[in-house]
Every structure is written in structure tokens, then in C-alpha cells.
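Milestone 3.1: sequence recovery, worked example.
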């Protein structure tokens, strides 16, 4: 397969490497990702994360395994294992459905490589379209708040919500970005802060609980987030804490935008209640761990709930900014998001 370089994926000499997103920003470490076990481990540990990137890395690995001569039935098994690695983001399932079709071709080795690389190229283009459409909604001097990490680390391109922030910044319209640290895993505090710094976008890092006060003081002009799955009625699953931002934005009369590729839409999922939400380990809530060190602050026997995502109802969303267009609530007033897509 050809050489490929994105912010967080490298394909060289038929080896797949991923940038360890658990180690950033203290350390820029690349991890080998050449077996299903390795990649599933990276996905579970969030060394590879972000809805689009998970799907792309799984697709590339399967294409590599096919080139290495793994038999078809073993490839099908590997595909099923990877498909189950994270339940909430639908991009993984959507990408692997396309790889599965390639696996069914008579020349499946070439077909899988072509399809995996096509998915990467498409993702780059989707990010650019989202950025163009989203930036058109950003007014001069905007102070924008974002949650989790939706940039080049999480996609093959410039990102989704962060792509919009970047394009709006290039157009001179961003005064500042408020970066939610994003508890419990600190994707905002570690990854978004690092990415915005690299991109030269002015930002201030805040604890998630500070957003309400900033909104009350009139210091937030709009909220921009990504999505892991958009249900058929427009409800959106995204990183835990997104829903509270949407409620706050609604209360304060601030626009709340969801930026995502159309591949995040799941027409088979009727509403947010039907989106599977990943539960993660208690240790992520009772303390923190990363390349910065680790510590536990809660009592050893503390009972913990740790859903990785929450669902924002369509009614709280000002617009879904997709690569194929900006969808406004009026367009889904019949409860069918799908119709607005065509
Ligand atoms: O658990 P994560 O870090 O993978 O969660 C990521 C998010 O919630 C992102 O907003 C979403 O995947 C979109 S990334 C372009």
C-alpha cells in the first residue's frame, strides 16, 4: 500500500503506526498497530480515538492484513472483532461495512487497499467541506467554546468542529476559543489545547464546570462540538458533557452547533435512546493517569458510573453542520433527519 501520513496515522513499508493520544502532549510517541490485538488495545486505551480515526485505522489495518496474505475467513473474523471495539461511534461500523463489500470482491486484496485509502481521502475532503460550511456561520470577533477533541488527531484531515475553528480563524473571525478540559479523560485539556497551540489559534483552557459562568457573563458566542452518532431524528451522541453544554447554551440563548461528516449519521437508529453508550472503567473517574503520571483521589471502594458519551436531543441543536450541507431544525421538524440529507 502507498505511504500515508496524517496527523495521527502513518502507513510506511506496509506497517501501520498510530500517534499515541494517551501520551500527548508530554510525549510524541508512535505505536505499532499491526495486529487486531494491538489495534483493539489502542482503541480501548484511547491511544487511537475520535469517531472518524477509529474507523480509518481499522480499515487500513484490515487492508494491510489482506496484503500480508491473511485468508478471507480470518479477515472476516478480524473485521467483526474490530467492528465491536467501540460501540458508540458509528463511523467505525460504516467504514467497515464498506471494507466488507471490498472483501467480497474476487480481487479482495486490491479492493480492500483501494477502499481503505479511498476512505482516508474522503475523510480529508469531508473535513474541508465541513470547515467551509461551518466557518460561514462564525461572525467576526467570536468567542467559541468547544468540547473534547475533534481535530487532525481525530480525523485524517483538519477535523470537524476544530476544522471549523481553524477555517474561521484563518478568515480572521475567531477572537478566542474556550477549551473544555473534558472530564474524565482530558481530551480537551491535553489534545485540543495542544492542537490549537500548534495551529496558532488563541485559546483558554477551562474546567468543564466553568462554562455556565462564562455563558452567564456573555463571554461565549457559540458552542461547536463533534458527534459520534447522529440518530435518524437528529439526536446526537458525543463525548460526555456535551449534553450539559447544549442545555446551558439553550438557556443562555447561545447557538449550539454540531459539526460532523455525513458518515456519522445512522439512519437505522431511530433516536438517541437507541444509541449504545460505552461504559468505561471506574479508574478514569476515581483518578487520572497518563504520561503526566497517575493519581487516585477517590476512596478505593468508591462506586462509580462512567458513561463515555451522552445524548443531546435534536431540540437543543441550532444546526448540524455536515459536509453535504447545514441542516437547520426546521428541516427535521417532522423528526426525520434523513430527509434533510437528500
Ligand atoms: O472518546 P473519544 O475521545 O473518542 O470521543 C471523541 C468525541 O466525542 C468526538 O467529539 C467525536 O468522536 C468526533 S471526532 C471528530
Amino acid at each position: 500500500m502507498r505511504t500515508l501520513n496524517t496527523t495521527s496515522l502513518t502507513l510506511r513499508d506496509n506497517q501501520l503506526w498510530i500517534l499515541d493520544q494517551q501520551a500527548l502532549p508530554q510525549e510524541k510517541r508512535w505505536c505499532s498497530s499491526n495486529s487486531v490485538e494491538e489495534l483493539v488495545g489502542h482503541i480501548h486505551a484511547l491511544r487511537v480515538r475520535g469517531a472518524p480515526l477509529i474507523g480509518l485505522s481499522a480499515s487500513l489495518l484490515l487492508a494491510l492484513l489482506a496484503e500480508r496474505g491473511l485468508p478471507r475467513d480470518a479477515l472476516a473474523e478480524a473485521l467483526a472483532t474490530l467492528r465491536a471495539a467501540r460501540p458508540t461511534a458509528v463511523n467505525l461500523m460504516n467504514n467497515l461495512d464498506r471494507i466488507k463489500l471490498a472483501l467480497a470482491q474476487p480481487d479482495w486484496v486490491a479492493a480492500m487497499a483501494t477502499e481503505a485509502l479511498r476512505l482516508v481521502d474522503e475523510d480529508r475532503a469531508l473535513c474541508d467541506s465541513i470547515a467551509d460550511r461551518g466557518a460561514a456561520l462564525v461572525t467576526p470577533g467570536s468567542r467559541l467554546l468547544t468540547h473534547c477533541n475533534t481535530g487532525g488527531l481525530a480525523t485524517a484531515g483538519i477535523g470537524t468542529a476544530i476544522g471549523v475553528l481553524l477555517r474561521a480563524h484563518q478568515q480572521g473571525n475567531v477572537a478566542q476559543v474556550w477549551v473544555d478540559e473534558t472530564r474524565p479523560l482530558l481530551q480537551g485539556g491535553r489534545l485540543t489545547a495542544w492542537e490549537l497551540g500548534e495551529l496558532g489559534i488563541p485559546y483558554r483552557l477551562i474546567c468543564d464546570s466553568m462554562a455556565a459562568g462564562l455563558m452567564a457573563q456573555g463571554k461565549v458566542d457559540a458552542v461547536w462540538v463533534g458527534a459520534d452518532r447522529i440518530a435518524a431524528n437528529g439526536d446526537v451522541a458525543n463525548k460526555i458533557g456535551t449534553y450539559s453544554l447544549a442545555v446551558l447554551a439553550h438557556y443562555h440563548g447561545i447557538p449550539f452547533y454540531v459539526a460532523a461528516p455525513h458518515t456519522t449519521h445512522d439512519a437505522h437508529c431511530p433516536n438517541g435512546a437507541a444509541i449504545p453508550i460505552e461504559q468505561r472503567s471506574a479508574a478514569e473517574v476515581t483518578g487520572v493517569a497518563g504520561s503526566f503520571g497517575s493519581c487516585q483521589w477517590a476512596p478505593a471502594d468508591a462506586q462509580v458510573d462512567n458513561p463515555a458519551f451522552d445524548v443531546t436531543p435534536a431540540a437543543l441543536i441550532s444546526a448540524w453542520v455536515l459536509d453535504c450541507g447545514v441542516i437547520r431544525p426546521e428541516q427535521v421538524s417532522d423528526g426525520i433527519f434523513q430527509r434533510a440529507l437528500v
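The chain has a mean pLDDT of 96. The pocket of MRU is lined by residues 46, 49-52, 89, 148, 150, 154-155, 159-160, 187, 226-228, 238-239, 308 (CB under 6 Å).
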